[in-house]
Design brief:
By secondary structure, this protein is an alpha/beta fold. It folds into three domains: about 120 residues, FAD/NAD(P)-binding domain (3-Layer(bba) Sandwich), CATH 3.50.50; about 50 residues, no CATH class; about 90 residues, Enolase-like, domain 1 (2-Layer Sandwich), CATH 3.30.390. About 30% of the residues lie in helices and about 30% in strands. Strands 3-2-1-4-11 form a five-stranded parallel sheet, covered by helices on one side. α2 links the parallel β2 and β3. The longest helix has 16 residues.
């Protein structure tokens, strides 16, 4: 099998890794070769270009060559060096069009947050520098990692900006190519991380009834109607992120995901919030 991936970012790099580990030939066509970053700290680069080229033997091509069994469209992330420079400036920074990434930069240094569109708790300021970042999309292939998705809860169309969501999409595509079971739906994922705190939003927008649950170090707001979730906002310590992202990926697979929020110490906050919505439908 030969696969062409158009665009290089964390999601497409992970897909290339999975395919090469399975013995699939992979060409990557990109106008912006760079180490595929997950995000600003605490996230690290996913792979280096040297690893992709020398260890995995992924070919980087200036134009598609020959026939491919599948074409996967991703995107080139342009201007991320400006974001990394802004992180080093230790100033409140607005990444134009990406308020969640802007919040991460300020949270990293415990600075006031730019007064932009994201409703994350913290001191606000109207004085901030601006940097730009663009996503050069590729379209026309059989599969997409970085294109227009429709959120399954709220129905909105969106382009995934968080690299971890694009990695999840890459896993779905790999499963489809290999004949494995994979989730058939999308859920929008946003997060801001810094200073030991994490803020995560799942879904389009806050709508419907809301349940707020405080459990340990985690605060959860669950919005929904008729027993089904529409939007979840989570505030927690950064150490809880693996649990949050695990629940996110489970929610992409099944409507009843949050009923499975159990651990050795008992029920989790998403379980409490979701069951509250279920009982509201019965009242």
């Amino acid at each position: 099998m030969r696969v062409l991936i158009r665009g290089l970012e964390a999601g497409s790099a992970y897909l290339a890794y999975l395919l090469r580990e399975s013995g699939v030939e992979v060409d990557i066509y990109t106008s912006n070769p760079a180490d595929p970053l997950l995000d600003i700290p605490p996230f690290e680069p996913l792979f280096t270009l040297e690893f992709l080229r020398e260890v995995l033997a992924v070919r980087f091509v200036e134009k598609p060559e020959g026939n491919y069994d599948a074409v996967v469209d991703s995107c080139d992330v342009v201007g991320f060096d400006g974001v990394k420079k802004a992180l080093g400036d230790k100033k409140p920074t607005y990444v134009v069009g990406d308020g969640w990434l802007s919040a991460s930069i300020s949270l990293h240094w415990s600075l006031p947050l730019p007064d932009v569109e994201v409703d994350v708790p913290g001191e606000r300021t109207g004085e901030f520098q601006e940097v730009g970042i663009k996503y050069r999309l590729y379209t026309g292939g059989q599969y997409s990692i970085c294109g227009s998705f429709r959120d399954s809860w709220g129905g909105c169309l969106y382009t995934p900006l968080r690299a971890l969501e694009r990695i999840s999409a890459a896993v779905d595509i790999y499963a489809s190519l290999m004949g494995l079971e994979a989730p058939k739906r999308r859920l929008r994922l946003e997060y801001a991380v810094g200073g030991g705190r994490a803020y995560v939003a799942i879904g389009c927008r806050p709508e419907g009834k809301v349940s707020k649950i405080n459990l340990g170090d985690v605060q959860t707001w669950m919005y929904g109607e008729e027993g089904g979730p529409r939007y979840v906002f989570i505030q927690a310590k950064a150490e809880h992120l693996p649990w949050v992202f695990a629940m996110y990926n489970l929610a992409r697979a099944v409507d009843s995901a949050f009923l499975y929020d159990f651990g050795a110490s008992g029920r989790g906050p998403l379980n409490y919030a979701y069951v509250g919505h279920l009982f509201r439908k019965l009242r």
